[in-house]
Design a protein that fits this description.
Layout lengths: L1 E6 L2 E8 L2 E8 L22 E3 L28 E6 L7 E7 L17 H6 L3 E5 L4 H5 L16 H16 L5 E11 L1 H9 L11 E5 L9 H15 L6 H4 L2 H8 L28 H6 L8 E6 L4 H4 L11 H11 L15 H18 L5 H25 L6 E6 L18 H5 L7 H5 L3 H20 L19 E5 L4 E4 L3 H10 L3
Parallel strand pairs: 2-4, 6-7, 6-8, 8-9, 9-10, 10-11, 11-12
Antiparallel strand pairs: 1-2, 2-3, 3-5, 5-7, 12-13
Length: about 525
């Protein structure tokens, strides 16, 4: 049965489902096509009649990614749509949970079945919003410094899409049973990095009250000069002489080109190209610096990571890699993180002696904890820390200077997939947070059985409690203490959920000695 609500642009018909109502594929901005490509999102036009919100809108153009992580399509540059899952389109003012998907800023979608709101809403009286935003070069290539500004090009289109969706929520979510003054933003991987960036963006101020960052920090951004270099490298790869020619290329061609660019900067951490750009009107400071300066001092925050983040990328295709020689390990570590391990003289050279010391420390620490410590395992551990955990720890430490309600977690549940080779890998937390571990494909990834259900309920309840109150503690896990630099209290989500102090402290210390921020 259709459920009809009124928004600022017209009436919308959703679909009544068992336990909730779904409004799918709602436009929150004009299609960013033609002259609006590379430009800030514009308000969509009003419509007459009733808009049928019964199916998802297209996902942003992208190449195929990891199995189970790539939406099935369709894909189109006209992608600025959101979805609302609500217990009821009534006058209740429910907490709103606003999800930003991951995918390295080049893939993913808010329509992925793993993010369906049904399981969460069956347990909690909240409203869930999932969104699409522009990805890759279409969302994050900044042409405003090389002539594109004459056509209205602007930095951070993907981030501005997220802000436009939050502004839509601010104006309209009350009609869907939500409270516009009680919004929590949360995201994973690039979505987590996007959340951290929103903490630093002046235009996002006041659009949300709390935030959750799952496996992604605030250091993934390019300077304006780096962004200009990348834009020039993109033009060279495209083989075009004028900036106007980039508006004439098909979206599919741009997606194809973005992976072929050589030259141009990459961000620190995961080393991504198409990321937010600072020293720009929408993002004046590098996100971590803005947060250090108190840009989000009023925002309670959860930050966490998965213990074996890197294994999703290294063990999915090669579950049992051949043994690695010591010299190869040293070289691979030096190649993987050259931007963060530097000589003391400041010349920017990679310091092999520091790499060797780091490897020895990692081996001793992991052996002591009963974790794998062969060279492949060490490379995975260092890679996961450099890309995800340490940037997350830096975000924690920046926010806790200004906000007492900051919480840390570590996810340790191990996937049974690939004969157990994935461990507690990147993205494994998602089916637990959304309760979608029974979705085809996710059941093999997360596992099945009472332990899976128990952990999912513990995490769903913590996320919902935090969204509602700013404190993730609940009866299922007990008290979750705030993070501070004295005890570094951390909630472990795994076979046994418990709170500990300063897990993997030796690894954190060696990284904090190497990098300033």
């Amino acid at each position: 049965m259709a459920v009809i609500v009124s928004t600022d642009k017209g009436q919308i018909a959703g679909v009544d489902k068992p336990g909730h109502v779904e409004f799918l594929g709602i436009p929150f901005a004009k299609p960013p096509v033609g002259p609006l490509r590379f430009c800030a999102p514009q308000p969509c036009d009003a419509w007459s009649g009733v808009y049928e919100a019964s199916k998802y809108g297209p996902s942003a153009p992208q190449s195929r990614g990891l199995p189970g992580m790539t939406p099935s399509g369709p894909f189109h540059e006209d992608c600025l749509y959101l979805n609302v899952y609500t217990p009821g389109a009534d006058d209740k003012k429910r907490t709103v949970m606003f999800w930003i998907h991951g995918g390295a800023f080049v893939g993913g979608s808010g329509t992925t079945p793993m993010y369906h709101g049904g399981p969460l809403l069956s347990r909690h009286d909240v409203v869930l919003v999932t969104i699409n935003y522009r990805l890759g070069a279409l969302g994050y290539l900044d042409l405003s410094g090389i002539g594109g500004e004459k056509r209205g090009a602007i930095a951070n289109c993907g981030q501005l899409d997220q802000i436009a969706a939050l502004q839509w929520v601010r104006k309209n979510i009350a009609a869907f049973g939500g409270n516009p003054d009680d919004v929590t933003i949360f995201g994973e991987s690039a979505g987590s990095m996007a959340v951290a960036t929103l903490l630093a963006m002046p235009d996002a101020k006041g659009l949300f009250k709390k935030a959750i960052c799952q496996s992604g920090g605030a250091n993934n951004a390019l300077s304006k000069a780096q962004a200009d270099d990348l834009a020039l490298a993109f033009m060279k790869t495209a083989g075009v002489d004028t900036i106007d020619a980039l508006w004439d290329l098909s979206a599919e061609k741009i997606v194809d080109l973005q992976a072929k660019v050589t030259g141009g900067a990459r961000s620190s951490g995961p080393g991504l190209r198409y990321v937010p750009v600072y020293e720009t009107p929408s993002l004046p400071l590098r996100p971590i610096d803005a947060i250090l300066n108190g840009s989000s001092s009023d925002i309670p925050l959860i930050v966490g990571n998965n213990r074996d983040e890197e294994k999703l990328f290294t063990r999915m295709l090669v579950p049992d890699p051949p043994p690695m020689e010591d010299g190869t390990l040293i070289q691979k570590v030096m190649e993987q993180i050259p931007e963060t391990i530097r000589d003391k003289d400041g010349e920017g050279k990679v310091a092999p002696d520091r790499v060797v010391k780091m490897i020895r420390m990692y081996k001793a620490s992991r052996q002591k904890m009963g974790l794998g410590f062969d060279n492949n395992a060490i490379l995975d551990a260092i890679g996961g820390d450099s890309k995800f955990r340490i940037p997350g720890m830096k975000l924690l430490e920046a926010q806790v200077k200004h906000q007492p309600n900051v919480f840390c977690y570590l996810f340790t549940w191990e996937s049974p997939a690939r004969r157990g080779a994935l461990g507690a890998c990147h993205a494994l937390d998602l089916p637990f947070v959304f309760g979608t571990y029974l979705v085809p494909g996710q059941d093999k990834f997360a596992g099945t059985g009472p332990g899976v259900e128990k952990l999912s309920l513990e995490m769903m309840d913590a996320w919902a409690a935090f969204a509602k109150t700013g404190n993730p503690s609940h009866g299922g896990i007990g008290t979750w203490d705030p993070y501070d630099t004295a005890s570094r209290k951390t909630m472990i989500f795994g076979k046994e959920t418990r709170q500990v102090s300063a897990p993997f402290e030796e690894e954190r210390t060696v990284w904090f000695d190497i990098i300033e921020r």
